[in-house]
Amino acid sequence: MRPQAIITIAALLLVAITLLFLGPSGYEKLDDMQSLPAQTAAIREAFPEVEHISPKTMALLIRGDTDMLVVDVRSSGEFEASHIEGAVNLRALEDFEPYFRPLEPHRSPMRPRPQLIVVYGSIGKRSAELADELRLAGHPEVRNLAGSIFLWANEDRPLIDAEGNPATKVLSVARNQSLLLDAERRAEAR
User: What are 5-59's pLDDT values in tens digits?
Assistant: First the structure.
């Protein structure tokens, strides 16, 4: 046998043993390494009742001065590193609970119910889950940003950091997911 064939067989055997050792979670980890378009398509398929909008549509909504609440579902650390301008971090939004009640006039003196809620996360799974919960709670105008902040950043759309300064990199606490970001868009954890 040629040395290349031996190396190939050994590599395949190593992958097989690793998958057997990791069990079902090994397959999930391999699934996480798909491309961003594949992840986005899988999220759309998993949440067919949720309306997903493209980054281009989101940019038009922002420029159009639409009455909307943009919610970032990522961790506060990820949000502080970079986010879409005007977004609020779900973990810092104290007055979000009324959106989960069945549709009724919003009685918060702090903030009237916006016409539209757009949610995003890293790739869109957590935000699609939230969008679905809001839809089931009776909020008719909720959207998930397809590809979420990863696609937004990969398309070179504007981001800001916690101080409002322009940002170009996105922090991901899930190291395997960060590979879905273009290399120049990946922020290193501090």
Answer: 677 776 666 666 766 666 665 555 555 457 999 999 999 999 999 999 999 999 9
How far is it, in rounded angstroms, from Cα 134 to Cα 99?
Answer: 7
Q: What is the mean pLDDT of residues 90-112?
A: 59
Name, in order, each residue with C-beta under 8 angstroms of 115's C-beta and a sequence gap of 6 or more: 66, 67, 68, 141
Contacts 24+ apart (CB under 8 A), 85-88: 85/158, 85/159, 85/160, 85/164, 86/62, 87/120
Mention every residue, 6+ apart, whose C-beta is less than 8 A from residue 43: 52, 123, 124, 125, 128, 144, 146
Are 186 and 169 spatial neighbours (Cβ–Cβ below 8 Å)?
A: yes
Q: What angle do CA 160, 165, 169 make, to 5 degrees?
A: 50
- The amino acid at residue 94 is E
> For tokens 């990522």, what's the residue?
74
Which residue matches tokens 């990199």?
A: 169
Q: How many residues are present in the chain?
A: 190
